[in-house]
Write a structure and sequence with these properties.
The complex is a heterodimer of chains A (374) and B (1202). With 374 residues, chain A is of the alpha+beta class. Chain A is 29% helix and 16% strand. Chain A contains 12 helices and 10 strands. In chain A, helix 3 packs antiparallel against helix 12. The longest helix of chain A has 28 residues. Chain A is extended and about 85 Å long. Chain B has 1202 residues and is an alpha+beta fold. Helix content of chain B is 46%, strand content 16%. In chain B, helix 27 links the parallel strand 31 and strand 32. The relative contact order of chain B is 0.09. The chains are: A alpha+beta (374), B alpha+beta (1202). The interface between A and B is large, with 130 and 149 residues.
Chain lengths: 374, 1202
Amino acid sequence: MIAAMMASSYNAKEEDGHHSGSSSHGGAGAVKSKKPDNTAFKQQRLPAWQPILTAGTVLPAFFVIGLIFIPIGIGLYVTSNNIKEFEVDYTGVDINSPCYSCAKNFSWNSTQSCVCSVNFTLEQPFESNVFMYYGLSNFYQNHRRYVKSRDDSQLNGDLSALMNPSKECEPYRTNDGLPIAPCGAIANSLFNDTLDLYYVDSNSTKTPIPLAKKGIAWWTDKHVKFRNPSGNTNLTVTFQGTTKPVNWRKPVYELDPSEADNNGFINEDFIVWMRTAALPTFRKLYRIIQKKSGTTPTLPSGRYILDITYNYPVLSFDGRKRMILSTISWMGGKNPFLGIAYITVGSICFFLGVVLLIIHHKYDTRNNSADIPN
Amino acid sequence: MAFWRRKAHIEKERHVKANAREYNDKFSYADNHIKTSKYNIFTFLPINLFEQFQRVANAYFLVLLILQVIPAISSLSWFTTIVPLVLVLVITAVKDATDDYFRHKSDRQVNNRQSQVLIRGSLQNEKWMNVRVGDIIKLENNQFVAADILLLCSSEPYGLCYIETAELDGETNLKVRQALTVTSDLGDVSKLNDFDGEVICEPPNNKLDKFTGTLFWRDNKYALDNEKMLLRGCVLRNTEWCFGMVIFAGLQTKLMQNCGRTMFKRTSIDKLMNTLVLWIFGFLICMGVVLAIGNTIWESWIGRNFQVFLPWDASQDSAVFSGFLTFWSYIIILNTVVPISLYVSVEVLRLGHSYFINWDRRMYYSPMNTAAEARTTTLNEELGQVEFIFSDKTGTLTQNIMVFSKCSINGQPYGDVYDEFDQKVEITEKTACVDFSFNPLCDRRFKFYDGSLVEAIKLEDAAVHEFFRLLALCHTVMPEEKSEGHLVYQAQSPDEGALVTAARNFGFVFWARTPETITLYEMGHPVTYQLLAILDFNNVRKRMSVIVKNPQGQIKLYSKGADTIIFERLDPSSEDLVFTTSEHLSEFAGEGLRTLALAYKDLDEDYFEVWMKKLLFVSTLIENREDQLAVLYEEIEQDLKLLGATAIEDKLQEGVPETIACLNLADIKIWVLTGDKLETAMNIGYSCNMLRDDMNEVFVISGHTLLEVQQQLRSAKEHILGLSRVSSAGSVEKTDTFADDSVFEETIIAEYALVINGHSLAHALEAQLKHVLLDVACLCKTVICCRVTPMQKAQVVELVKTQKRAVTLAIGDGANDVSMIKTAHIGVGISGQEGMQAVLASDYSFAQFRYLQRLLLVHGRWSYFRMCNFLCYFFYKNFAFTLVHFWYGFFCGFSAQTVYDQWFITLFNIVYTSLPVLAMGLFDQDVNDQNSLRYPSLYKPGQQNLLFNKRQFFLCTLQGLGTSFLLFFIPYGAFSVMVKEDGSQFSDQQAFAVTIATSLVIVVSVQIGLDTHYWTAVNHLFIWGSVTVYFAILFAMQSDGIFGIFPSNFQFIGAARNCLSEKSVWLVILLTTVVCMVPGLAVSFLRVDLFPTLTDKVRHLQQCRKRQGPQEQNLRRVRRTSSRRSAYAFSHQQGYGELITSGKNMRMSSVSAAPSAGKSPHSSNWIENMLKRKNEVSCISDENMEASKGNKAIQTPDQHTV
């Protein structure tokens, strides 16, 4: 198509150019040589590395890949297996499940929150820091309309955006004429179950386990991406003129009554929630159980009770809620996939190398130039 | 440009009055201002944008852009499309603007040329653009004609003037134009100022050879035709000055009317690409539909319930409607499978390849200071797929230079050089040539190697002297003394020039001629012969004779002609001589030389008187004059005595047989289409090694009727098929019905050649025979068509082009090749001696036929190879990039959520991956140029279209599909449970996006690395650079600073930092890369290892021999065995002895002597005769050109190189 422009049909300079040689003014000076420059570039002789696939290069590559991948895979697999993880589903689908009634009787309007307790036993003690996650399944945090339903300017503390949130937040942009802070579907659907963990020792006393709620969000999110408007001296004042999201019980500046500087947009639970998951089944960090000093395990083996303040309805769309306890390693959490994948790929490469080697030796047909027809 | 003007006034007839601007202004004819440019500063933007959006690709992206601003369906920000689109538009606009700037410049230059215009009684200098219709302008020698003008008078007698029409039809010989007798004496300004004739003529048109009009002057009507017109673009030659009246000016001149937009040639890859883009588009719609259906299902099963947290939009009230919107959203997201940068990149590549052709020193011809030139930049890869070459002969295969190389005098052959052992020595550049210093008048460029001939001259061998005397006397050459003692011959045909020059060097210098005398310097002494008669050459006679009276009073007839003709008319006494001479003739012909036999006769004075009287009588006859003359000539040309024979070498261009042999090895079929005669064409065929004596059969088709031609073609075909398939006799009939004979072609081992004459070709090209013709022609190794008109050349090309669906290339140098050059897929012009017309119409031009080898086997092959690799990779890359969204659709509720950051989508094609693939497309070489030439078979994959076809396309899209699958599902597997090393959540969308994007960039970079065969520094720079730039931009776009400025456009703040600091992410990337690469690597290794193509073998060989020096090409020219063929091979059609004896073409000074009374009636009407003769053939334009070539102008090649 561009060709159309490149091919010019008539060019007056050609009419002229041809003539100049023979006409009266043609004898002016020596004719400039049109001989192209002898540069490697113009003559397409640039020095170059010309790799070709030969048995000498490809086969070793396969073996090397195999030999590197298999140990990595084994390492990953062993590490992943050493990680202790415990998971409990507290959705309350099953009629025998402790949260069944809470799940059944859920209503947005009820002022009284429903509490249920789940008992479980840890067979093995959890050493070092233990991380407590909540997991949701079949929850489409990655739906396009959901993902875009936020206003990053507002969340970054922009005052005008606070009062006049982006259109993307519809239908959670305003409520009763007041701008919603934080606006949008993501904020509106903030996970608001409260999970408390108790250790039940041998004489049945419930010892609450201290759950750290700080340090669960990314540093960049907490310090750069999310900011309260104009400092956070008095959040109540700052957020005056806005209203809380429809589903919320409390306004944004009262998210964490226990700690003043964990309120507003920089509330870590909120930040964690706002980082939308890639897949419909996901887990998000809820609390950290810090390692105690000394040799006692963070979570010794034994019986535990998980108290759930059941505020978050998921049954209507077949969702599931889980609580996960996990330790971590140098490669993060439990992740058997990578280890298995590495071992598999490594073995396949090695095997492929062997097969190719055999094929190469048995059927190699290339013997230099002997059969090149001229 | 001027369509509104055209609408307003349709010109039926043109009225032009001389010297009356007011009168002519009424008609508002175009002035002489020309404009080839398209834009000015103000119209550039709107017009250019309008033009650009007419292209499908741009329009497509504009539509996408519009879709993207609809909030309900916009799945991507507007900038993802607008940035690439603007980039593409800007690049194109800049190029258009530059082109137009140069057009402006050249327009301005042409418009500002000076010409002398007669205004109010005096000559004034005016710019060309101010010349108007009806003006009288003066032209001087060597000036361009400013407009189409009617010749009024000139400095030459009879109002003649000479023009060169190279710009119009490409012929460099001079043509004569003659003014009306009534106007030819208007030679001074005052008379011209009073001239008030009115011309009524045809409206402007593009027929270069036709003009009809009438001049009304002084109450008389004079008919005007093309012979009185000087067209814009011609150059005045050999004429001091002339005056003319402007009839058509500016854009209405015939030259400009001929400059219609040339038809665009598109390559087969172009067409394939368009088809594929349509397919991709269809695929895109399918994916959209699948995902839209998925969305409808999802919304009605899950989304409906998920409204607790994600209510439906107010506008979206049903799942079906949501599906409909999603369809559009996905069209937007997945649009990158139709890559916007594809078209631009392809153009850039082609431009680059064109520059490489222009820059190639090995296609530069230093004697003419001509480099190869790619005149169109869009056809390069097609050069790698050529199957048929149609070549002109004269000037393309041959140099159109005739060289006197051998002779046989009185039974004694001369011309070969023998060493001391009596072994024939090959004549090369280094062979010492004969010293002609004894002759001060010799032509220094003449070379002869056999000293014995000079010895014979010096010994005053009578036969030898008579031999050269004949050569010096019997011809129609005109001498011109350029400076003291410096003679230049103007010969009608190069053959004659060569013969006269030979005589000159051997001491018989043709010095001067008048209508009655010829003066020679015979061994330094001037001798004047009375020229009594010229018995001119024509095609029937195939000989010419002169009758001269030497100073001793003897009357002699000298004759030269085709050997068969001369031998028939010999005196019985020459019988022995005939025997030896014809042996020599066979020998000469066997070497591909053109031969002539020479004979003389002493005439009895009385006999001659009687004969001369008859001649004078006959020449005044009105009826049957030609026939009567022929009878008379026949009568006197009897009982000749044989002198000997000459052999002229029609010099082939350098390297022609080698090139043809090489191209044949590359399975390229070469057909020669020439206007020459059968014998000449076959001669050249033999010397080019296209015809060989060891060929099984050379079929000559020369039937005059349809039936005859059919018969001949059928029997040729039966002959071929009968020999090769003895078993199935019935198949011959069958094959007539099947157009495709490829099966048979494969099985023919024997070599055949087909030679077909022009008049037979006319029948063979008719609908019922063309299939047979094509079948036979394709079964033959060599096809030569002779005596073909330019139209037929185009028809033959068209036939092969449409019926064989093969890529055709036409190569030629003359105006008669233009139609064929324009018809073929690729037209190549030889910038040779015959002007520029062929070059101007061509797509590629260079100076020598042998460069074709390099153009096709090196540049063409590389271009094709690069383009195919480029396209494969490009489609692979875009599929891998885009289809990830498709897989993601299944996990995000088919909501058209993108996997990547929007900025990544914007930049992926234009920044992250564009340069490495461009570098590969520009610089890649699988095999170097020496090996490409050494192994012509490497060319075959291109002809079979193996490197990029629908199958390859499927394979590379399949690879892309697979890569996208792995790119999505490996991170999916890893991310479903992944947490960071500090325990914080990590399976979020942004981390996922960064991981997949990084894997993608690395995977496609590794892939291009594997696809690159030739890693230059540029490739290194671009590949490593692109990866580096990716990371740089990634971190920059996700940095705190830029987020602080535009929080809502750069939401990915910190994602890269958090993500890429994780070991597990790198493990995922490594795993993805390896898994994506390993299958491809294993497959290509196995392919190379088990089924290596020729390319692979040569590459391997090249690798092994890397350190040895460059390989010389060892294609030996095979000397063929001799066979008897002889031809009187003059290339002209009609002699002009008449012109010479009339003396009209000589300057007044040289013919001051009054012509003898006896000849005046004969001579006075020669111009009328000529014109009459011309009118007979002028109905076919092409023949007209040839006729005019034979008619007048005398111009040797050496004159216009001065």
